[in-house]
Amino acid sequence: MRKNDRASITSDGGRLMSNDDFNRNAGSSTLGARLRRLSEQIDRDATRVYAARGIVFEQRWFGPLNQIVQNGPMAIGEIAEKLRITHVSVSQAARSLEAAGLIASYADAADGRRRLLALTSEGQARVRELAPIWAAFDTAATALDEEAGSVVPALNRLDDALADLSLFDRVSELLDRPGISNR
Description:
The protein is mainly alpha-helical. The protein has helices at about 20-25, 30-50, 60-70, 75-85, 85-100, 120-145, 150-165, 165-175; strands at about 105, 115-120. It starts with about 20 loop residues before the first helix and ends in an 8-residue tail after the last helix.
């Protein structure tokens, strides 16, 4: 039985909110906190999946490693651009992947100043080992998205809205209105 099978259900099929869940009760004012909490929960569960199968793999490695698998050798900046995350995040994950022996860094033949990341033979073997696990993650994520009412399109719209106008710009516009204190 799932934990939430015992939760109270409202007449419209939604779950009753717990009075002690501040972030959930606060609505959109805690959007960032809710997204962080969900991300942490997903990452924790993914880590548990790998550990339960005796595989040493950090969830933060997936994005950069998957880009190298899909595209072949890539520079850190290219991976960051594809994933739309910071160069620093990719660089940290790359150092960790390199220390784990899954990727290697080498000078680009076309531009010696540029470093490319590529799978090692150990990395290729690990990817083969992880393929069925990643397929299970995909299947579970698709089912979870359906169960939650197709949140991926909503996340895409949120991503697009922030790309159009950042939260910083939105808040700044509000604070720059006459009569609003900047304190």
